[in-house]
Amino acid sequence: MEILVWVGAGISVVGLIGLVWCIAKVASAKRAGLSDEALRDAVKRVVPINMGALMLSVLGLMMVIVAISLG
């Protein structure tokens, strides 16, 4: 079960890195002074990546919790 904890933690870290990347991408688009429409397009491109990163993070944490519960 120890390997499941480490794999889950690794998956959570990858998800967290994805979330930080999404935050940085939207913040840089806001700082660029884009028009409202261009800013909406930039955010629309980041939303699917943001949801995928959040899903990875949650799945990794679920793996850690299951491994701790079973171990």
Q: Main sheet, how many strands, which sense, barrel?
A: none
Q: What's the average pLDDT?
A: 95
Number of domains: 1
* Structural class by SSE content: mainly alpha
Question: Any overview of this molecule?
Answer:
The structure is a single chain. With 71 residues, the protein is an all-alpha fold. Helix content is 92%, strand content 0%. It is rod-shaped, with a radius of gyration of 16 Å. The termini are close together. The model has no long low-confidence stretch (mean pLDDT 95).
Give the helices and strands, then pairings.
Elements: H1 2-31, H2 36-70
Helix pairs in contact: 1-2
What's this, in brief?
Helices cover 92% and strands 0% of the residues. The chain is an all-alpha fold and 71 residues long. α1 (2-31) runs antiparallel to α2 (36-70).
